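Researcher: Going back to the complex we discussed earlier. I've cleaned up the inputs and rechecked each line, so this should be the final set. Can you rerun the prediction on the complete assembly and write out the structure?
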Amino acid sequence: MDAADWDARYAASDLVWSPHPNVWVEEFLASMPPGRALDLAAGEGRHAIWLAQRGWSVTAVDFSAVAIDRLRVLVDEHLGAGASAVTARVGDARVAAEGDQAAYDLVLIAYLHLPPADWRLALEAATAASAPGGVVFVVAHALRNLTEGVGGPGDASVLLDPGMAVESAGGLPLSVEIAELRERAVEGADRAALDTVVVFRRLP
Ligand SMILES: C[S@@+](CC[C@H](N)C(=O)[O-])C[C@H]1O[C@@H](n2cnc3c(N)ncnc32)[C@H](O)[C@@H]1O
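Model: Rerun complete. Updated structure for the full complex:
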């Protein structure tokens, strides 16, 4: 899907995604001391808002202008006087922005599903944006989710298993701290969603 497809998807509905943070984002990041975070492919901003509520200063990027407009409204609604903790911009996750170089303690990539070559570009951009010692946190629908799970894209070529995520980081200055397949309960579904959770640490 390109940016126009995502714009149309967001425009067609009031709130496309859950307003709550993803369970793995909560589990893995709640104890991380706040600093500067980059939320790549931020969508409507549920994670940017959640992080800002925990003291983070967040830059939220998405290539859908409709998503970013909505994110700004939701940031104002949820954060009020603290809304300045979130800076939002329309941008491509595959392109490292100059001002982002080595700037972030945390780069979050949640459910960004791209063909492998584009995914690699996004991971390169995330790596470039993370400060030495910083975390690149990836959560994605796993390949097995297609046949054994629920939700997520129906195109196998954009799904990401833990091993694929680790492989895609080959040659980048990242160490792998966690690479797991996790089962996520989905309300109303008779089976769990299968998610990939990967924690990379930016090497000095
Ligand atoms: C499934 S949504 C996830 C949104 C958010 N991360 C969340 O977890 O709620 C995927 C998002 O990726 C964005 N996206 C897809 N390709 C992108 C790209 N190349 N650059 C920036 N955003 C992109 C879409 O616009 C969409 O908002």
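Model: Worth noting: The mean pLDDT is 96.
Researcher: Good, that matches what I expected from the previous run.
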